Amino acid sequence: MSFNQFIQYKTLDRMYAANNDGLLEMALRDPRNEESIKKQMKNVCALIHVELFDQLSGVCDLLEISKRQFIEYAIIEALAKAESIMEETGFYDKFAVPETPVADLIEDEA
Prior knowledge:
Number of domains: 2
Shape: extended
Number of helices: 7
Largest sheet: none
Order of helices and strands: HHHHHHH
Distance between the termini: 33 Å
Helix content: over 70%
Number of strands: 0
């Protein structure tokens, strides 16, 4: 590992810890918290191809992260990209859809 890689790792590790994402994962595993946490969360279910699921599982296993974490971050990024494209193309203006910026949703979680 190079010095740059080491510094990048430590920087990202500290940023991750500051978000308290690990605390949510621990809380989700504790049955005593199940009811209170479930009131604030929704389950996202979708049938996906077996090979895609295997790739997801493999990446999550290699990175030692939960599928929930991976999917949540992927959804946040995908929603931000979709919102940007919709804004750039004038979608909100044409269909008079009120904008709900993804950034606002993320800030609400913090």
